[in-house]
Amino acid sequence: NAGVTQTPKFQVLKTGQSMTLQCAQDMNHEYMSWYRQDPGMGLRLIHYSVGAGITDQGEVPNGYNVSRSTTEDFPLRLLSAAPSQTSVYFCASTRLAGSYNEQFFGPGTRLTVL
Amino acid sequence: AQSVTQLGSHVSVSEGALVLLRCNYSSSVPPYLFWYVQYPNQGLQLLLKYTTGATLVKGINGFEAEFKKSETSFHLTKPSAHMSDAAEYFCAVRERAGNMLTFGGGTRLMVKP
Fold this sequence. Notes:
The structure holds two protein chains of two kinds. In chain A, the strands form two sheets. In chain A, strands 2, 4, 5, 6, 9, 10 and 11 form a seven-stranded mixed beta sheet that branches. Chain A is built from no helices and eleven strands. Chain A is mainly β. Chain A starts with a strand and ends with a strand. Chain B has strands at residues 4-5, 10-14, 19-21, 24-25, 32-38, 44-50, 56-58, 64-68, 73-78, 87-94, 101-103, 107-112. In chain B, the strands form three sheets. In chain B, strands 2, 5, 6, 10, 11 and 12 form a six-stranded mixed beta sheet that branches. Chain B has a four-stranded antiparallel beta sheet with strand order 3-9-8-7, with no helix packed on it. In chain B, β10 (87-94) and β11 form a beta hairpin. Classes of the chains: A mainly beta, B mainly beta.
């Protein structure tokens, strides 16, 4: 199993550009989520999904869109990048069934918006 | 909403010394509690978790944490620090109904030779 994969690892954008951060998992997990990591603030939830066709907002959703057309993939879209979106982005996944299941994290995408 | 406080954004210890990283949460109902470790330029790896039962939980790499309901705390300890323990550590909580994790701000552990 590859686990949770993210592409690209690094990206530099200019203000106003758009891009999609890719996330995929091969563990058949129902729940997938996107976090951003900023110094001193830990990880903050952007969007999450409990299954194909179902998405919802987290703590900091503004400026980001998501979709979940398959169980495996959960892309994060920045429609018009802003310098405030400079951050490290992590995707995570977990099973829904069971009292608790560990969330598995991808390696991250480091995004810089100039 | 849940909140998680990690006291000390940076902690420095000598190799062989006790490691103590503090975590307090705000919840009247005990949530699920976790510690994650992040090595430089990597993703997060689960160190240990408390879900129910024994309040002292052991994790990987010699770390352990104790859930204290009366203090709403879940502090992480290791008796003897190793150079390889240098990393950033995150405490996180999850309400028992739901899947959303709330993270603390993180503590960067530095280990001096």
